């Protein structure tokens, strides 16, 4: 472990770019990414609060930043696995677009909520020669994230990424191996022991193969039995056994379980100090006695290993729009400076036309990268504007849709695709309603060529509904 004495560092010269957060129970864990004279440190902290409300989370984050006199620009949130539904799936396709569609359909089947109530993301594990692919599906209710997201935003922080703890732990181990200059080989397990929950992931070479989380027990033997149960489930599902088990996390919890594991299972057990390859600021190491910051370090050090961003679509689109506006403003300033330079040059050299032309040519060459950037930003703005226009459909089209829609049909999404076709996605009480609706669409004065792209049944609170996707085109104006 590399430790930096806080007394030797002038806090006024410390900068903080990002903070990595986890909200669990009534605690917020924070890992501040700070720098001093080109050196990187992690400052670990925690804050307790009462009820998990937006206001309490916001106030606790403000207090954390105030206590350490830090003003991070970006926040990354780690979501413990027990808040997320996860599944390993084997899908009959190796095409990314088809895999995404299949994952979306599977997501709707997995939980009794409508599509607009959940966030679904997936990690592509492996593509096989037989035309199948293995994916890791993660589902979370939007309401579950609402309190966390709004609390962080109210604290004045911009959310960059919401990670799943399983991916974060996988990323941490990849970072540790990279520091040790060791390749990932064979089947191995990694256990992260935290104060109130323990997570075990199993990797097969470079692929994530199994994840499970359980409540950390006070009884040592009970925790060992949970680990044995996890290994047994994996072996039964995959017909494989691990050849190594890595234990990390809270110092107080890991030291007592390692001896017990070595006696209980016939596998090499290795302890990895979670702070061995990072520089800690001040007395941060003392917090690791009771809590694990492994996931937060994994997100900080190996963001490229994370494939599933559990941010809401609304938040993602908002960030994209902000980035484009920011880029457009910068480009505007560069273009303004360019025009000022041209005008100044003209005022100075207006007598000699040759000098003017040479000067303008030189300035054009110098400013070309910025001009190209401005043109790209302009194109991005046009694309974004097009997306905004596509979302609120034309009033006439939208009016006709709801005019011909019978009772029993409920929409989750209405949009245009890239070919100009209209996509209607939702659910009905019965398949007959969907088939009958196709005939209604064909009789419309506005739509034509209606067809059912897919249907599937699911149960919501004891009732069976039929999900559907209908695609049709709009008749050309005469």
Break the fold down into its secondary structure elements and pairings.
Elements: E1 2-4, E2 15-24, E3 27-36, E4 39-48, H1 54-68, E5 74-79, E6 85-91, H2 96-110, E7 118-127, E8 133-141, H3 142-154, E9 158-164, H4 165-179, E10 187-193, E11 197-204, E12 207-215, H5 220-238, E13 244-249, H6 251-264, E14 268-271, E15 279-281, H7 294-301, H8 313-349, H9 353-390, H10 395-404, E16 409-416, E17 422-428, H11 431-442, E18 447-460, E19 463-474
Parallel strand pairs: 1-15, 2-5, 5-9, 10-13, 13-14
Antiparallel strand pairs: 2-3, 3-4, 6-8, 7-8, 10-11, 11-12, 16-17, 17-19, 18-19
Helix pairs in contact: 1-3, 4-7, 5-6, 8-9
Number of E-state strands: 19
Note the run of SSEs as H and E: EEEEHEEHEEHEHEEEHEHEEHHHHEEHEE
What percentage of amino acids are in beta strands?
A: 25-35%
The CATH topology of the largest domain = Nucleotidyltransferase, domain 5
Q: For the CA atoms, what is the radius of gyration?
A: 28 Å
Low-confidence stretches: 3-9, 387-392
Task: Tell me the number of structural domains.
Answer: 3
Helical/strand content category: alpha/beta
Major pleated sheet? 5 strands, mixed
Question: CATH superfamily name of the largest domain?
Answer: eRF1 domain 2
Classified by CATH, the class of the largest domain is Alpha Beta
| Integer average pLDDT | 83
């Amino acid at each position: 472990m590399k430790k930096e004495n806080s007394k030797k560092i002038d806090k006024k010269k410390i900068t903080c770019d990002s903070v990595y957060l986890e909200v669990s129970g009534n605690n917020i864990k924070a890992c501040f990414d700070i720098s001093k004279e080109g050196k990187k440190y992690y400052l670990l902290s925690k804050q307790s609060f009462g009820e998990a409300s937006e206001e309490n989370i916001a106030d606790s984050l403000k207090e954390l930043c105030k206590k350490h006199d830090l003003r991070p620009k970006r926040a990354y949130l780690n979501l413990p696995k027990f808040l997320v539904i996860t599944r390993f799936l084997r899908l009959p396709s190796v095409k990314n677009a088809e895999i995404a569609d299949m994952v979306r359909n599977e997501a709707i089947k997995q939980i009794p909520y409508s599509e607009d109530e959940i966030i679904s993301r997936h990690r592509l594990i492996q593509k096989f020669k037989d035309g199948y692919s293995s994916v890791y599906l993660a589902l979370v209710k939007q309401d579950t994230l609402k309190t966390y997201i709004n609390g962080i935003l109210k604290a004045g922080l911009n959310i960059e990424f919401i990670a799943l703890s399983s991916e974060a732990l996988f990323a941490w181990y990849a970072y540790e191996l990279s520091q040790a200059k060791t390749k990932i080989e064979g089947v191995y397990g990694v256990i992260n022991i935290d104060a109130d929950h323990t997570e075990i992931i199993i990797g097969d070479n470079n692929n994530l193969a199994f994840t499970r989380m359980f409540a950390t027990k006070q009884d040592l033997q009970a925790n060992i039995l949970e680990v044995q149960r996890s290994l047994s489930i994996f072996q039964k599902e995959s017909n494989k056994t691990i050849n190594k088990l890595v234990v990390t996390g809270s110092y107080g919890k890991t030291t007592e379980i390692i001896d017990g594991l070595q006696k209980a299972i016939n596998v090499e057990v290795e302890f990895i100090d979670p702070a061995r390859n990072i520089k800690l600021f001040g007395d941060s190491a003392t917090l690791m006695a009771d809590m694990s910051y492994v996931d937060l370090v994994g997100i900080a050090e190996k963001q490229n290993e994370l494939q599933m961003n559990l941010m809401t679509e609304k938040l993602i689109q908002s960030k994209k729009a902000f980035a484009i506006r920011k880029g457009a403003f910068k480009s505007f300033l560069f273009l303004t400076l360019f025009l000022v330079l041209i005008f100044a040059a003209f005022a100075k050299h207006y007598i000699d036309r040759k000098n003017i032309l040479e000067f303008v040519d030189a300035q054009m060459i110098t400013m070309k990268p910025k001009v190209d950037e401005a043109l790209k930003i302009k194109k991005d703005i046009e694309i974004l504007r097009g997306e905004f226009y596509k979302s609120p459909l034309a009033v006439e089209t939208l009016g006709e849709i709801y005019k011909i829609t019978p009772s029993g049909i409920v929409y989750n999404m209405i949009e245009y695709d890239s070919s100009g076709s209209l996509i209607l996605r939702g659910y009905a009480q019965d398949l007959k309603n969907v088939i009958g609706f196709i005939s209604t669409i064909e009789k419309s004065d506005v739509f034509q060529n209606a067809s059912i792209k897919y249907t599937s049944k699911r149960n919501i609170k004891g009732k069976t509904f039929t999900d559907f996707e209908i695609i049709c085109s709009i008749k050309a104006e005469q």
